[in-house]
Design brief:
The complex is a heterodimer. Chain A has 19 helices and 42 strands. By secondary structure, chain A is an alpha+beta fold. Chain A folds into six domains: about 70 residues, Phenylalanyl-tRNA Synthetase, Chain B, domain 1 (2-Layer Sandwich), CATH 3.30.56; about 100 residues, Beta Barrel (OB fold (Dihydrolipoamide Acetyltransferase, E2P)), CATH 2.40.50; about 190 residues, Phenylalanyl-tRNA Synthetase, Chain B, domain 3 (3-Layer(bba) Sandwich), CATH 3.50.40; about 70 residues, 2-Layer Sandwich (Phenylalanyl-tRNA Synthetase, Chain B, domain 1), CATH 3.30.56; about 200 residues, BirA Bifunctional Protein, domain 2 (2-Layer Sandwich); about 90 residues, Alpha-Beta Plaits (2-Layer Sandwich). By secondary structure, chain B is of the alpha+beta class. In chain B, the strands form two sheets. In chain B, strands 1, 4, 5, 6, 7, 8, 9 and 10 form an eight-stranded mixed sheet that branches. The two termini of chain B are about 80 Å apart. The chains are: A alpha+beta, B alpha+beta. At the A-B interface, helix 6, helix 9, helix 11, helix 12 and strand 27 of A face helix 5, strand 1, strand 2, strand 4 and helix 8 of B.
Chain lengths: ~800, ~350
């Protein structure tokens, strides 16, 4: 919503200066977006400097210039002027600019094979002089102004308000003035009462069809006969220009002016082009018309149209049609001032994708009591500027719009805002906003002004009072520091621990979109459904991600392409397994590419491998508070991992869902995404699959017990079937005597010439200690033998001698 | 007597010459071995006449002790020398680079979420969450934004179905709805999370982060709202002074509604929060609309309170001098390395939010 201060002062009597008025607008809730000179065509001409000028490769008389227009990067302009040389300060016009001399609109164009972004202007082209031999040469003092507008703004300063959707009344200057007056910024002036002479009946018959969901309930109209349409007078042109619009003709400008002044949209028809009568009705599917935006629209059933006997003239409250549009030759005008329901306007404009100033207003709610005031003001102005004779007003109604009533209890104000103001002041504010008050002691009975469709209940009255009184009166009550329940729940704590423990292992946390490119996402989707976005931001972000990897691997590749070699990323966030609310899992996904050590004087080069991934995933789970001894590893994993170098982690041996996967990636994935790296590993942790522990960690701890008796270590080497897993071997040994065997670790695995092809040798170190006594050689011998015999019988292994 | 004195002098002289551990041991054996010189002298004890025996024994013991001391002193000396020599040979250039250690980084948005949670934890808020995919009812209708409401135009919504019933939440406000539907008042929660709008340019990303706040109880009014936000913003920006301005605004789900601006100025190209005469809009808030309370089965005649929504990414940009919103989500290793946080930097109220 744009207007000048002068325009505002036509409705508001105030002594305040511009800055005070702007402050007051902010304070009542009318947000000032900007207060600047109105834009004009001349804004497109900038001071520029030629940074470099080279001969055009294909034309002797043209030069290709690199021009600095203050944007950081220079732009290329092809120029034929003999004086276009390096270092020259001149005037640049960008694509879209209109050259004053010939009214030509510039576009980006190819000149003999070189693309030119705009042009450098001669004084003649700028209408500054007749000099047309070369481009404008500016004095040295312009060096500091490169990038700034060349022409000083002569346009008036314009306030641009961002009006919230609840305040259609402030989409007209008068409504803004009314709010300011209520806040004490001035006095609302009375509308000029002039007597216009109405001659004769409005002779074009108007009918509103009583159909289901008729979008028009009131249609007011009058005829202005015998007008001479013309260019608008300067005062009117200036008003239209200050709105950022172009003056068209007096009649069109007047209807626009009244719309912005009183927030009363109108439409002017060329009465001679209307075929006999006006019928307001619902459209039928397939009907079409050409609108004033020069587009042809084909309508659906049930759109509110203004029609005549030949068909559709326009969409009521949205846009008129070319068939009945006014022109400079128009002699007789039919002026429309109607009420259209917000719902109907909104539905139609959405379906047809039309946005106009009238539509914007009607869908927010136009004052249904402003029909006659609008006709009156517009007809009067038309008569004043274009002459003619005004008919009586014809008002067709199919529904009486009653004013709303709200009961307001004074105490609600303090209850809501925390502070109190005088009843007298409350009444004054409400009065100034246009409410009609009938009081009964504690309650006010309020009749809501016709221009305030947003006021529906007592709380809305509280807002009116407090915003006019000023939010600065609200007290600041210090918050109490008492807690109803703990800040984080178990799962949120797990999130927090995992996030920071993964980061502490060298991974950089990334946050990537929840949507992904279906092509990449499919590589990680497994058996999950693809969840399409109906209106994606781009075709590369067209589905919800089924895996953290869908995006993370894409960004990993981008960083590898930047020349980084050994990098690790992780993300913790949602992945989606369905399109219903809640069909999502919280997952940590981590990737590591390259080598563990590279070009290092201490260590040999080593590419990352599955055991790096395993270390990071296991250690993170431990740090999140879980017992390593209970973890169980299996070698099943999703298809995007290397089938032989990946696995899954279970919290307990007999759990049915793994909490994590880890491993190296399948070579197909690396190939398809074209990742150039020495090695790629990753892991995923599924937070939702952790069983919630009831006890806190401190309560899970067993009693502190330790033994000071001598500890013994024994080494064993077993030759065993390749398929037997180390995890099982350790489990067998541990179970031989849970009290005596304190730990088992693998220190060597050998496959090769010295043992059969399908076997491997596993060397283990076992720590044996009693908590009751020092073990004798005999005791140790016994347990040694028991370990060997148990392993041999349970796993088919043979002790290596 | 002269014999043993001679032995002493001879061996002391020997020991004072350059020796190594081996030759020392050799001397030790020569003197004190089974057939060592000193040992043999002791064996002579019996043949020494009675009257001289006492003196002989004392002299011999004295000499024995002297020689033994000398031997161990010498041995010690040699050992020290040899260790020093060995250490000298082992010397390395400690200015060579140490072994690699890689610490990761926490994303600024995560860090800011933890800071926010820490602040609100102090004044009794707990953290709630809601799904990223929402139904139309929770995201709009329950929040007093019916189908034909123009406010819906301000949210460019991503839809998952053609009937427009499933969508990506456009704000964190549906968590209010979910929280109140599943519980009973009082409510005092914050809900940080991802939000989505199909809007993408220099200052907008199709995904961003918000934190919702909700406090409903019997007598919570706009003064509490102002106090809570004033406290939060001061704590968050870690400033003592704060210029804050409440401005009337409109959100369908709050009435009265406000937007909050904070004062700032630019000094040496850096933004300083809390001072200066420029205003920066940082959040929207208001008293929860009675229609919303009715929609979630809370009696608006008994309970009332406030709600607010803050853009997390923007807060982070302001606090940590980050210029480009889109860079948050571009996973550039250099950017994360520069703006990311040490995972040990867990924001807390007693240690301070930031280092």
């Amino acid at each position: 919503m744009k207007f000048t201060i002068d325009w505002l002062k036509e409705h508001l009597d105030t002594n305040l200066n511009d800055q005070q008025i702007i402050e007051s607008l902010t304070n009542v809730g009318l947000e000032v977006e900007s207060y600047e000179n109105a834009s004009s065509d001349l804004d497109d001409f900038l001071v520029a400097k030629i940074v470099n000028a080279e001969q055009h490769p294909n034309a002797d008389r043209l030069r290709v210039c690199d021009v600095d227009i203050g944007k950081g990067e220079t732009i290329k302009v092809v120029c034929g002027a003999p004086n276009a040389k390096k270092g020259l300060l001149t005037v640049y016009a960008g694509p879209g600019a209109i050259i004053p001399k010939n009214q030509m609109k510039l576009t980006v164009s190819k000149i003999r094979g070189v693309t030119s972004y705009g042009m450098l202007c001669s004084e003649s082209e700028l209408k500054l002089s007749n000099e047309s031999d070369g481009i404008t040469e500016l004095a040295e003092k312009y060096n500091e102004k490169v990038g700034q507008k060349y022409f000083e703004s002569k346009t008036p300063k314009v306030i641009d308000l961002s009006i919230t959707p609840n305040r259609p009344d402030c989409l007209g200057v008068r409504g803004v003035a009314r709010d300011l007056a209520a806040a004490g910024t001035g006095k609302l002036k009375n509308l000029k009462e002039t007597k216009i002479k109405l001659i004769g009946e409005q002779s074009t018959k108007v009918t509103i069809k009583k159909e289901k969901e008729q979008g028009c309930t009131i249609f007011g109209s009058c005829l202005v006969k015998g007008v001479t349409n013309k260019e608008s007078p300067q005062w009117l042109k200036d008003k239209i220009l200050s709105l950022g619009q172009k003056p068209i003709s007096a009649i069109v400008d007047i209807t626009n002016y009244v719309m912005f002044d009183l927030n009363r949209p109108l439409h002017a028809y060329d009465a001679d082009k209307v075929d006999k009568e006006i019928i307001v009705r619902n459209s039928k599917k397939g009907e079409n018309f050409e609108a004033l935006d020069n587009k042809k629209y084909t309508l659906d059933d049930g759109m509110c149209v203004i029609s005549d006997q030949s068909g559709v003239l326009g969409l009521g409250g949205i846009i008129g049609g070319t068939r009945s549009g006014t022109e400079l030759e128009t002699k007789n005008i039919l002026l429309e001032s109607a009420y259209f329901s917000p719902r109907s306007i909104r539905k139609t404009s959405k379906l047809l994708n039309i946005d106009t100033d009238a539509k914007f207003r009607f869908e927010r709610g136009i004052d249904p009591y402003s029909i006659e005031a609008g006709l009156k003001k517009a007809a009067e102005l038309i008569q004043e500027i274009c002459g003619g004779e005004i008919s009586k007003f014809d008002i067709q109604k199919i529904e009486e719009k009653k004013l709303d009533n709200v009961k307001f209890d004074f105490s609600l104000f303090e209850k809501t805002t925390g502070f109190n103001i005088d009843k007298k002041e409350i009444i004054e504010i409400i009065n100034n906003l246009g409410f009609k008050i009938s009081e009964n002691s504690e309650n006010l009975n309020l009749e809501v002004p016709s221009w305030r469709p947003d006021i529906l209940q007592p709380i809305d009255i509280v807002e009116e009072i407090v915003r006019i009184k000023g939010y600065q009166h609200i007290k600041t009550i210090e918050p109490e520091k008492n807690r109803l329940k703990s800040t984080l729940n178990k799962k949120q704590k797990l999130f927090h621990f995992l996030q920071r423990s993964v980061a502490s292992k060298g991974y950089f946390e990334a946050i990537t979109w929840s949507f992904a490119d279906s092509k990449i996402n499919n590589l990680f989707r497994e058996k999950n459904d693809e969840i399409k976005i109906v209106n994606p931001i781009s075709s590369e972000l067209n589905v919800l991600r089924n895996s953290i990897f869908s995006n993370l691997i894409y960004y990993l590749q981008k960083n590898l392409d930047r020349g980084f070699k050994d990098i690790s990323f992780f993300e913790i966030g949602p992945v989606f397994i369905g399109n219903q609310p809640g069909d999502q899992l919280t997952v940590v996904g981590a990737l590591q590419a390259g080598k563990k050590s590279r070009l290092n004087w201490l260590e040999k080069d080593r590419a990352v491998d599955v055991f790096d991934a395993k270390r990071d995933v296991i250690q993170s789970i431990i740090e999140a508070g879980f017992n390593k001894d209970k973890l169980f590893i299996s070698d099943n994993s999703p298809s995007y991992y290397h089938p032989g170098k990946s696995g899954s982690v279970y919290l307990n041996r007999d759990d049915n869902k793994p909490i994590a996967f880890f491993g190296e990636f399948h070579p197909n994935i690396i190939k398809k995404i074209d990742i150039k790296t020495d090695a790629l590993i990753g892991f995923e942790i599924f937070l939702d699959y952790f069983k919630e522990t009831k006890k806190k960690l401190k309560d899970q701890k067993s009693q502190f017990e330790y033994s000071d008796f001598q500890k013994s270590e024994r080494d064993f080497a077993f030759v065993i079937d390749k398929k037997v897993k180390a995890q099982d071997l350790i489990e067998i040994i541990t179970s031989v005597d849970k009290d005596l065997i304190k730990s088992v670790s693998v220190f060597d695995v050998y496959e090769g010439e010295k043992i059969p092809k399908d076997k491997k040798s596993v060397a283990l170190n076992v720590t044996i200690q009693s908590s009751e006594k020092t073990l004798t050689d005999n005791d140790l011998e016994k347990i040694n033998n028991l370990i060997i015999s148990t392993v041999e019988s349970k796993s088919g292994a043979k002790i290596r001698s | 007597m002269s014999d043993i004195k001679k032995i002493k002098d001879e061996y002391l002289a020997k020991l004072n010459k350059d020796q190594n551990l081996e030759s020392i041991n050799q001397i030790k054996t020569e003197l004190f071995g089974k057939n060592g010189i000193v040992s043999n002298e002791f064996k002579k004890m019996g043949s020494v006449p009675q009257e001289e025996r006492k003196k002989f024994a004392s002299d011999l013991n004295f000499i024995k002790e002297e020689l033994q001391n000398k031997i161990s002193e010498k041995a010690q000396e040699i050992e020290t020398k040899e260790i020093n020599l060995k250490l000298e040979n082992e010397k390395v250039d400690v200015t060579l680079p140490e072994r690699n250690f890689k610490l990761g980084k926490i994303h600024p948005v995560s860090q800011v979420i933890d800071e926010i949670s820490s602040i609100f934890s102090e004044i009794g808020f707990s953290v709630e969450e809601g799904p990223d995919v929402e139904n139309e009812y929770n995201n709009f209708t329950a929040l007093n934004t019916p189908d034909n409401h123009p406010a819906r135009d301000m949210h460019d919504t991503f839809y998952l179905d053609h009937k427009k019933e499933l969508l990506l939440r456009t704000h964190t406000s549906p968590v209010q709805v979910r929280t109140m539907l599943k519980g009973k008042p009082p409510f005092k929660i914050i809900a940080p999370g991802r939000t989505y709008r199909s809007d993408s340019d220099q200052t907008h990303a199709p995904m961003f982060h918000q934190v919702e706040g909700l406090h409903i109880d019997k007598d919570i009014n706009m003064g509490h709202l102002k106090g809570c936000l004033n406290y939060f913003i001061k704590e968050f920006f870690e400033v003592d002074k704060l210029k804050m301005r409440f401005r009337p605004s409109h959100f369908p789900f709050t009435e009265p509604s406000a937007e909050v601006d904070i004062g700032y100025e630019i000094k040496d190209g850096k933004i300083i929060i809390g001072e200066g005469d420029k205003w920066l809009e940082i959040l929207g808030c208001g008293m929860v609309h009675p229609n919303v309370l009715k929609n979630v089965n809370v009696d608006p005649s008994k309970y009332q309170g406030y709600a607010f929504g803050i853009g997390i990414d923007r807060l982070g940009m302001l606090k940590y001098g980050i210029n480009d919103l889109r860079a948050f989500f571009e996973t550039d290793y250099r950017w994360l390395s520069h703006f990311g946080f040490d995972p040990l930097d867990v924001p807390s109220s007693y240690r301070g939010l930031s280092r």
